[in-house]
Amino acid sequence: MDTPDVLHRSIRHTHDVLADRLDGARAMIATPGQPRKNFEDVDTFLAMTSKHLSAVDAVLVPAAQKLVPDGAVLVHEYVRSERDLEIALTHVKARAYGSTYEAGRPWSVEWADVADALGRQRTSEDGLADRLADTLDGPALDDLTERLHRAESTGWTRPHPYAPHTGLAGKVSRRVMHTVDAFWDETEGRMVPVPDRPRREKPGLFTQYFLADPRFEEEEPPPE
Looking at the whole model, is its pTM more than 0.85? Predict the structure, then answer.
């Protein structure tokens, strides 16, 4: 693909943001007098990543299963990489909230596992986007991308690697976990950021010509 479509751009933008959030979370800058303050970046990273994964499950996975040849195989491979990332995130969450089972595991190892899994996840999502772009036209990809953004607002905010991810069970699970996560986020006073969307650029004249969708700037009114 010579020119990235809107879906590819959206996924790559999201993962660029997540990579920046990961860097901030793993820095874990000490805050004397506020021992939990440095975990706010960890919570933010966990929430943003979880919401994005939930949205991909809700929008891109069903589309791939339905529209892409051999979509079931593609989705099976995708879900495996997604669960690997969620498991790594679960270890980080447990360590951040004082789990005794994670206490002897160095933070450097925890973050290295997350970084590796996040890189594989990015590759898997690009693979989904590749196959969908081979199947759908531009307007359909635009619609899929818009649905992906909307789904992030209602996604779960914590990793749930062992919950169902696909099919009717996955749909029900996302609704239940969103409600449960929202309750605990409110109880714990946990900040959940709004997903960051890439800025959409206006199509150039060449693109407008081939899309048969010319968009002219408003002309100045003639002087009276």
Answer: no
